[in-house]
Amino acid sequence: MLTGISGGIGPTHDDITYQSIAKAFGLKLFEHADALRRMKALSKPHPSQPNFSWDVPSPALEAKKRMIRLPIDTSRDDSDQVLFVDENLWVPISVVNGNIHILPGVPRLFETLLEGLKSVLIPRLTDPEGKGVYRLLFSTPMAESAVAGYLTELAAKVEPHGVKVGSYPRWGRKRNSVTLVGKDKAYLDSLIDEVEKNVEGKRVEREDEMDQSDDPDEN
Q: Which of 14, 74, 158, 211 is deepest in the core (most CB within 10 A)?
């Protein structure tokens, strides 16, 4: 399973994502030489730090280096654990356990690096374009707790067919959502009547499709 984590990799004391992931996987943090080289070449001192020097120890230098001390598994190839996907950015994507990708939380950086990561991730997906996966969405007026028993039974029944059952509360709304996801469209379609009956709901294309029927005065 591919996993993405964002944020907590900055220079301050509360940026502890690298440390936390390292601890969880029994790894040590290593100062990554290439990341430091790129940081020096591509980043500029902040106007509030006119006297900053890469060669003189200082709290500011220590803070910057926090951002390139990465969790490294010495038994794995370094090039698979530290990815640079944009030549204009020094920020690395740290990859732990071969599947956990750590990205910055800053939206602009996150989007740029995620876009650059596509060429790495897409070949690993079993169905990268989603052409072979189907999703049925049901709108139900019942509480999640009221349908939990049925959905548990349904999940066990459809699992051998590769179908996943999901339930999602919609806070502040009168209706909740139930989903079925799988590759066998004919089998999924055969479940529609049963699900509609047991959740007292209706198959919809959008989760808010029936909101207005519940709230006739709502625009």
A: 158
Whether the model pTM is above 0.70:
no
d(CA 83, CA 178): 38
What's the CA angle centered on 29, arms 94 and 108, to 5 degrees?
30
21 exposure class (CB count in 10 Å sphere: 0-12, 13-18, 19+): buried
pLDDT at 219 over 50: no
Sheet hosting strand 134-140, strand order edge to edge = 164-168, 176-182, 134-140, 202-204
Task: Summarize pLDDT for 3-53 with one digit per residue, the tens.
Answer: 999 999 999 999 999 999 999 999 999 999 999 999 999 988 888 998 999
Query: Can you list the pairs that 112-121 forms with residues at least 24 positions away whose Cβ atoms lie under 8 Å?
Result: 112/86, 113/85, 113/86, 113/89, 114/4, 116/85, 116/86, 117/83, 117/85, 117/93, 119/85, 120/83, 120/85, 121/2
Report the alpha-carbon distance of residue 102 to residue 32 in Å, rounded.
15
| Residue (of 121, 111, 137, 126) closest to 202 by Cα position | 137
